[in-house]
Design goal:
428 residues, mainly alpha, globular
Length: 428
């Protein structure tokens, strides 16, 4: 029962490791729901749902235009009530362009969907401001070290999704349309939870709107490129690779993104201390420490995952998805870079260096997409994995150089792995 006591302590201490725990738990729930979906609708249906779900997350980032990171930075030094109210006003305004984007994307990328599935996907894309709102809510909660609340926000969607997926599967009505409707229900539940947990101060919200949006431009490119790097390949894999290969790639991506939870938790644990540190050596030292911590723990997580993949993939998804195993192995190289890069991105964002983030994320994305168009039609899911890995590796190199630190200061040691664990398990 020691493990149970440790979990209880995470909640009583409101530890940053709750971020990793919640992401791992969410990924675990996804690993339960994904095989149910895959077995019910097959590789082709899995490819379609992956493309639509990717769009559900990309469009909100486009509309947010860097605002979630602005909210997080401002909340690190204030109560965040004014910042979140302004962000929600931007989200409300965003329903107009979201509807236009939904119609455009539906006609460009979702033309091969059946009419009902296409309609559900279009509604989901139009609901992008709802996702943007809870992205900002999570930023406030992380800045204020309210990790129990973040835990709730991050598991609401996968819990609701899994519950509904089980229901439609048992009823024998699983389809692309019903799967997407289940996913959207989870996003709605997360939105409502954020409204309850994070209260805003609406006085002067309209007046503050230009300042928030102007500051957001520094982070918009980086945020968009990061999300596109994680999601856009799945959206365009459907027409580029074909539904079956896109389905294999979607399964591999589901598995490879599990260790990203460690990077997200570690980045959050360092964000506020870096933002509050005095500019100069103190802040730079924390940034270097964050980088070494990421480089120390990310490879370990992916090595373990690669060893387990040959057993886990066929067991969970069925023999028809066995082809995803080598895709997992190849994509893991990029996964290490993606996880480490997230921590470095947060270290730069806390320092207000959104331009550097934007350049690194955009260049990495451009290489990844170029390689995808070159390799995808030839190698299928394997080509997509190679392409994404190349993009993430280039992004990581550029983020590391953005720290303006000697290479020797970024080389991880055993002590850095211990420091990473300390950051994840203790409040600052």
């Amino acid at each position: 029962m020691k493990w149970l006591k440790k979990i209880v302590h995470l909640f009583t201490d409101d530890s940053p490791s709750l971020l990793a725990f919640s992401r791992i738990l969410a990924s675990g729930l996804a690993l339960i729901s994904a095989p149910i979906v895959a077995r019910a609708i097959g590789p082709a249906g899995r490819g379609e749902t992956a493309a639509a779900i990717a769009l559900f997350h990309i469009v909100p980032v486009v509309l947010a235009f860097g605002v979630p990171l602005v909210v997080r930075r401002r909340s690190a030094t204030t109560d965040g009530k004014q910042a979140i109210a302004t962000a929600r006003l931007i989200a409300i305004i965003g329903f107009v362009p979201a509807a236009a984007a939904a119609l455009l994307v539906s006609n460009l990328l979702l033309r091969d969907f059946d009419p009902v599935s296409r309609a559900v996907a279009t509604v989901g894309i139009a609901a992008a401001p709802m996702v943007m709102s809870w992205m900002c809510d999570i930023g406030v909660l992380i800045a204020h070290a309210r990790y129990r609340a973040v835990f709730a926000m991050q598991i609401i969607q996968p819990v609701a999704y899994l519950t509904l997926i089980l229901t439609v599967s048992l009823l024998g009505i699983a389809s692309t349309a019903t799967v997407l409707a289940c996913y959207l229900s989870g996003l709605l539940a997360t939105f409502v939870t954020g409204i309850v947990l994070v209260r805003g101060d609406w006085s002067g919200a309209l007046k503050r709107l230009p300042g928030v949006t102007r500051e957001g431009t520094k982070f918009a490119g980086a945020a968009l490129a990061e999300t596109a790097s994680n999601r856009l390949d799945q959206a365009i894999a459907l027409p580029l690779l074909g539904a079956s290969q896109a389905g294999l790639y979607a399964v591999a991506t589901t598995i490879v993104t599990i260790p990203l939870a460690l990077g997200q938790a570690l980045g959050a644990a360092y964000f506020t201390p870096i933002a509050r540190a005095e500019a100069g050596d103190a802040r730079r030292g924390l940034q270097q420490q964050a980088a070494r911590s990421a480089f120390a723990i990310a490879p370990l997580a992916f090595i373990a995952m690669c060893i387990a993949a040959p057993l886990i993939v066929p067991l969970l998804f069925g023999s028809e998805f066995a082809g995803a195993v080598p895709v997992v192995w190849i994509a893991s190289t990029g996964g290490i870079a993606m996880t480490s890069g997230y921590v470095l991105s947060m270290a730069l964002a806390a320092d207000g260096r959104g331009v550097r983030m934007t350049i690194a994320q955009t260049v990495g994305l451009a290489l990844g997409l170029a390689a995808l168009f070159a390799l995808g039609p030839i190698l299928g899911a394997l080509g997509a994995a190679i392409a994404s890995s190349l993009g993430y590796l280039l992004m990581l190199v550029m983020l590391a150089t953005g720290l303006r630190s000697p290479v020797s200061s970024l080389i991880p040691r055993v002590a850095d792995a211990r420091e990473a664990i300390r950051r994840l398990t203790k409040r600052d």
